[in-house]
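stage 2 :: seqdesign
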């Protein structure tokens, strides 16, 4: 009887504590588990969702999330000014993705789980032997649960981390897509300018050939060959102009105010070597969630202790209850071993994600190095070809070279120049891919 009375008194005290929390709220605690929103230092001066998610980790002395801290500490590789910055700001301002809403949902769920150590209170209705209903207030407090409630909080916190990584991935993907459209448009415009210049020069050769045909110095078949080459260059120029127009139209579809007057490309800052790729952070968050889920499952096979108190017309009653969520069966041992193995599986998934990301980055960096080598070699060959073209032109003027030979050399020079001008834009696109993987 003594321990039942003590349990009942403790339960009523918990009822009083909970009533005070409902009326006035816990002092200094907001709905997100951190300091109240009136404290700008706690929620961040910019009000970012990830910054708010970081403040949620403070409740009940929980450790700050290393994943969210890593996301907050990251700095963009994009320059503060220039066309890349304008494109990035434009596409982010018009972002309507669902990742921010999912992060809010995960934060609210984590807030709810952060209070699971408090007692539960609710009405209780019993049908008596006389056929009457007896109403009472039932309060239950878990005294010992083998870490299940703590694992539930860890599971919810891992959900917040995964949602925060999802928000970062969504923002990075959107900026990457916008900049890809912009660089594609710039590359097409540069190639169109080269093609247009080649058309003008090839047309001058065509005019010369027309005069030679009229004077009987050349065959009309040679004129037709030059006209075909002119038409081919014009088709290249038109295709490049169309590609540039399409890319800019797709970019402007991503922003609220159309982007005009932008030209050129910006250089990206070197990434921090200490930051893990976003895929690795997501694997880490999913691994922590898997471990927390395994801990909850393990606690379900072990006995827990719960205190309960009932306040009714007849007075106070209370008691202690020992129970397990899952019964002990023949497969319990295998279930516990599977739970232990889940921790190793989570670590292996994280390492696998890190290896995959590193391989992609190394492959892209090797491709960039190859394009740089091609650009240097192509510039040297292009300069030599241009010098030879000038020499052939002078020899043609003195009658030592036929016009068709000069036309063929210029055609090779124009194709080489059009290909070489696109290399720096291709390298910029590859650098964006690396930045997207790194996050």
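stage 2 :: out
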């Amino acid at each position: 009887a003594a321990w039942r009375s003590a349990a009942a008194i403790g339960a009523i005290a918990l009822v009083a504590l909970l009533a005070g929390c409902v009326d006035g709220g816990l002092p200094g605690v907001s709905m997100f588990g951190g300091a109240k929103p009136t404290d700008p230092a706690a929620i961040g001066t910019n009000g970012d969702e990830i910054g708010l998610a970081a403040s949620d980790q403070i409740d009940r002395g929980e450790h700050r999330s290393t994943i969210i801290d890593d996301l907050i500490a990251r700095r963009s590789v994009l320059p503060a000014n220039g066309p890349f910055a304008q494109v990035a700001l434009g596409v982010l301002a018009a972002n309507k993705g669902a990742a921010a809403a999912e992060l809010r949902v995960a934060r609210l769920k984590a807030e709810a789980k952060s209070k699971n150590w408090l007692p539960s209170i609710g009405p209780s209705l019993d049908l008596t032997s006389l056929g009457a209903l007896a109403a009472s207030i039932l309060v239950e407090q878990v005294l010992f649960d083998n870490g299940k409630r703590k694992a539930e909080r860890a599971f919810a916190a891992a959900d917040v981390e995964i949602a925060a990584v999802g928000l970062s991935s969504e923002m990075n993907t959107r900026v990457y897509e916008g900049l890809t459209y912009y660089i594609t448009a710039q590359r097409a415009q540069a190639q169109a300018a080269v093609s247009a210049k080649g058309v003008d020069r090839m047309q001058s050769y065509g005019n010369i050939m027309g005069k030679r045909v009229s004077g009987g110095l050349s065959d009309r078949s040679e004129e037709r060959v030059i006209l075909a080459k002119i038409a081919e260059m014009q088709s290249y120029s038109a295709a490049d102009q169309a590609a540039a127009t399409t890319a800019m139209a797709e970019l402007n579809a991503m922003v609220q105010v159309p982007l005009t007057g932008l030209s050129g490309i910006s250089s990206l800052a070197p990434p921090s070597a200490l930051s893990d790729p976003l895929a690795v952070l997501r694997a880490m968050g999913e691994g922590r969630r898997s471990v927390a889920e395994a801990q909850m499952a393990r606690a379900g096979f072990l006995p827990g202790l719960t205190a309960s108190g009932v306040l009714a017309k007849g007075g106070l009653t209370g008691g202690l209850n020992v129970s397990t969520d899952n019964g002990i069966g023949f497969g319990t041992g295998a279930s516990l071993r599977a739970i232990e193995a889940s921790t190793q599986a989570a670590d292996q998934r994280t390492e696998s994600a890190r290896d995959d990301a590193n391989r992609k980055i190394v492959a892209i960096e090797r491709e960039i190095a190859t394009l740089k080598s091609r650009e240097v070699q192509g510039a040297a060959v292009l300069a030599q070809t241009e010098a030879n073209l000038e020499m052939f032109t002078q020899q043609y003027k003195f009658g030592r070279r036929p016009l068709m030979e000069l036309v063929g050399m210029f055609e090779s020079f124009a194709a080489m120049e059009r290909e070489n001008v696109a290399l720096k834009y291709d390298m910029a696109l590859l650098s964006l891919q690396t930045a997207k993987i790194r996050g």
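stage 3 :: structure notes
- The longest helix spans residues 148-214.
- The longest strand covers residues 133-144.
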